[in-house]
Design brief:
This protein is an alpha+beta fold. It has one domain (9-234). Helix content is 28%, strand content 14%. It has 8 helices and 7 strands; from the N terminus they run E-E-H-H-E-E-E-H-E-E-H-H-H-H-H. The chain has a 5-stranded mixed beta sheet. Strands 3-4 form a two-stranded antiparallel sheet. A hairpin with a 5-residue loop joins strand 6 (123-128) and strand 7. The longest helix has 13 residues, at 31-43. It is elongated, with a radius of gyration of 18 Å.
Length: 236
């Protein structure tokens, strides 16, 4: 998948989006992408002693699988135009006398996952300008999103979030080997000092968020995991 647009989950003043595959080999039914996507959704949860999901804290949850159409965008630069211009959302767009379209997206934050992000275990956080083009963008590992919550609540701009590294230093947000076992990925976070957890506690959290996932991973069957199970922990 290149950048994707899934059904967005709006919470506070941000939106979570994924982008449409650019070829049939990139679709989420393809085992590698499906396995990476399920692992990515698990890594969106908190692994700091609080069992929760950063979107669930706002009464929303990330979509389990993107829903695409032939007009869904494949690049981050087209997301705002697809979401608001194509759908004629006049709460978010207006037209000047000379026919130019103006986007009114000030203060809105967009989390976007593209093919590169999916392969590297990263999520992009960006904002769009009045012309619908992306103005600022930064990338982070999914389990670091929780550190942004206070800043997002206060509507800090992405440029400031990126500069001050609210989601942790750059070394904490480098690409992840998404082919590695999920506990190895979380072990990396522990060694970098992000959490005092050990592997046993990580395993307990993964089992809580995704029952039987570790057993299926050991059998090489993560692409078969039922993603609907991931919502269980976030339902009232």
């Amino acid at each position: 998948m290149k950048t994707a647009t899934m059904n967005s989950a709006n919470a506070a003043n941000f939106s979570f989006n994924g982008l449409r595959p650019t070829s049939r080999f990139g679709r989420l039914t393809y085992p590698i992408n499906r396995a990476h996507w399920i692992k990515f959704l698990i890594l969106l949860n908190r692994f700091d002693g609080v069992r929760s999901n950063f979107l669930a804290e706002y009464g929303a949850h990330p979509p389990i699988f993107p829903v695409y159409s032939s007009s869904s965008p494949t690049e981050i630069k087209d997301v705002a135009k697809w979401m608001y211009l194509q759908n004629a959302d006049f709460f978010r767009i207006s037209m000047t006398q000379d026919g130019s379209v103006m986007f009114h997206l000030r203060g809105a934050h967009y989390f976007i996952i593209d093919q590169k992000n999916l392969d590297q275990g990263l999520v992009s956080l960006g904002t769009f300008g009045t012309n619908g083009e992306i103005t600022h963008e930064t990338c982070m590992r999914p389990y670091n999103l929780v550190h942004l919550l206070p800043s997002l609540e206060l509507a800090h701009p992405v440029s400031e979030l990126a500069e001050r590294r609210h989601h942790g230093p750059e070394a904490w947000n480098t690409p992840v080997d998404m082919n590695a076992p999920i506990l190895d990925i979380l072990d990396t976070a522990m060694k970098e000092g992000l959490t005092a957890y050990d592997r046993t506690r990580f395993a307990g959290d993964v089992e809580y968020y995704a029952p039987e996932y570790l057993a299926m991973e050991a059998e090489g069957r993560t692409a078969e995991y039922d993603p609907d199970v991931l919502l269980r922990v976030h339902r009232p």
